[in-house]
Specification:
The structure is a single chain. This protein has 467 residues and is mainly β. It has 2 domains: 63-80 and 93-331, YVTN repeat-like/Quinoprotein amine dehydrogenase (Methylamine Dehydrogenase, Chain H, 7 Propeller), CATH 2.130.10.10; 354-447, no CATH class. Helices cover 7% and strands 33% of the residues. Strands 25-24-1-26-27-28 form a 6-stranded mixed sheet. Strands 4-5-6-7 form a 4-stranded antiparallel sheet, with no helix packed on it. The chain has a 4-stranded antiparallel sheet with strand order 9-10-12-13, with no helix packed on it. The radius of gyration is 23 Å and the shape is globular. Mean pLDDT is 85; it is low at 1-34.
């Protein structure tokens, strides 16, 4: 039986924000758009000179990360649209991996090789090259995280010996914590050495204890030595609806100066949990040091636009400064708009709007109409969701599809989670005017932050026509 409830979204705050942000971002319009607006040559923001360039692909967005060491750079190939198959070219057409680029002459970079990852597996933002010297291995190691693009993927992390970048050697592929036959997917990984031992930390996408630390002194035989759930230290801020608290990225620095001299400190970018410091001098027993808090009112938004709204959170990536006195953190904000959800039983709930859909204020001003629950709304679910044409709308009403984020941790589901954009496209293809996507249990901090909101990035391209 279809579950229907009338809903209205009020967006007066969102409309104010659209006007303010237009001026705020105008100074650099091309950062994630066209080729115009980037920093080339001597500019107002610093002295940057373009020395050389190399085009390794014509597919937009295919390069997911880059690492450089010595005379070589490594570019992560995220995988083409057909990454999941069919496998028509065999070993000669790998799904993804890393381009190897000779940058000894920066003005004339040259592609000299490609490191292929296993079938249906792709790297993301977790690429790094470093040198280690242990009793079991001496040389340069390339680490890449492993995410799935098809059913035959290998999760975990990948280690390659790139001491000779022209002849890379596989050390370990698809290693990580396991629930079933496959290692958990990871989004980032980082390697460091302390004394005569080497270690790796990876982000675990399939476990609440998502900080996994391994001993890789013998990189051919990694060992899991500790795992931590930083939400055990109350790093989230559910009072600000910042409950989507999880590890996104991390780095470790063994310091020789500053307040943490002679200690190895990890800074974990923990999304809505902010930035968390851990003492990993003994990686088998990490010690929580402290974390940052987001202000109740986003200070940058208030200063630039005069609009007072709660922050998005989204601690994305951070690095320590050279003198170990500070760290520089970056938030990956997706949702510059806010909305208020009101149901006909009197409930009111704060909500966000995606930054890549059509703003509600631009299309409708407000949304008002019946809702239909459509489950997860992934591409495979489209045949089971009623078409919007089955609804009878009164004048001034819109058809609204309600979907759920995920699936994640749902024992009734065998399919993996799909992109937010695929859910929005589902609603659009079925004729709905708008879509509401409810957060899942993990995104609500296991129920501790039931109203937490998260409006992620666009996962694929299509002609977006709805809110």
């Amino acid at each position: 039986m279809q579950r229907r409830k009338r809903a209205m979204l009020a967006v007066s705050l969102a409309s104010l924000l659209v006007v303010g942000l237009a001026g705020a971002v105008a100074a650099n319009p091309g950062q994630h758009g066209s080729n115009d607006g980037h920093l080339l040559g001597t500019g107002d923001w610093g002295k940057i000179e373009l020395v050389g360039q190399l085009e390794v692909t014509q597919t937009e967005g295919l390069v997911a990360d880059v690492a450089a060491y010595g005379d070589y750079a490594y570019l992560a190939n995220w995988g083409e649209e057909d990454c999941a198959g069919p496998e028509t070219g065999g070993v000669n057409t790998p799904d993804s991996g890393a381009w190897v680029i000779d940058i000894s002459d920066p003005a004339n970079p040259v592609e000299v090789g490609f490191i292929a990852m296993p079938q249906d597996t792709r790297p993301g933002e977790g690429m790094q090259v470093t040198h280690i010297e242990t009793a079991k291995f001496t040389g340069d190691i390339l680490v890449m995280n492993a995410e799935a693009c098809g059913k035959n993927y290998k999760g975990g992390f990948m280690l390659y010996d790139v001491t000779n970048p022209l002849k890379p050697v596989k050390l370990k592929e698809g290693f990580g914590e396991r629930t079933g036959s496959d290692a958990h997917q990871t989004h980032s990984a980082f390697v460091w050495q302390w004394g005569n031992r080497a270690y790796l930390v990876s982000q675990d996408e399939e476990d609440l204890s998502d900080v996994d630390i391994y001993d890789i002194t013998n990189p051919r035989r990694p060992r899991l030595i500790s795992e931590v759930n930083l939400n055990d230290y109350a790093v989230a801020q559910p009072a600000l609806n910042l409950g989507d608290s999880f590890l996104h990225d991390m780095t470790v620095k063994c310091m020789t100066s500053g307040v943490y001299a002679n200690r190895c400190i990890m800074i974990a970018s923990y999304w809505d949990g902010g930035y968390v410091l851990l003492d990993v001098t003994n990686p088998a027993n990490p010690i929580f040091i402290g974390d940052t808090d987001y202000a109740a009112i986003d200070p940058e938004l208030l200063e630039q636009t005069g609009v007072a709204l709660t922050p998005e959170g989204n601690g994305h990536q951070a690095e320590f400064t050279k003198d170990n006195e500070f760290f520089i953190g970056t938030d990956e904000d997706f949702s510059p708009y806010r909305a208020l959800l009101q149901t006909d039983d009197g409930g009111q709930y704060a909500a966000g709007e995606f930054g890549w859909t059509i703003p509600i204020g631009e299309l409708y001003g407000t949304l008002n109409g019946p809702t239909v629950y459509g489950g997860y709304g992934c591409p495979a679910d489209r045949g089971s969701i009623p078409d919007a044409s089955t609804l009878t709308l009164a004048p001034g009403e819109e058809a609204i599809l309600v979907l759920q984020r995920g699936p994640l941790g749902d024992p009734s589901q065998t399919q993996g989670a799909c992109f937010f954009s695929e859910k929005v496209e589902t609603a659009q293809l079925l004729g709905y005017d708008a879509v509401i996507i409810a957060n899942h249990h993990n995104g609500g901090l296991g129920g501790d932050a039931p109203d937490a909101q998260f409006c992620g990035g666009q996962g694929h391209e299509f002609d977006i026509q709805i809110s």
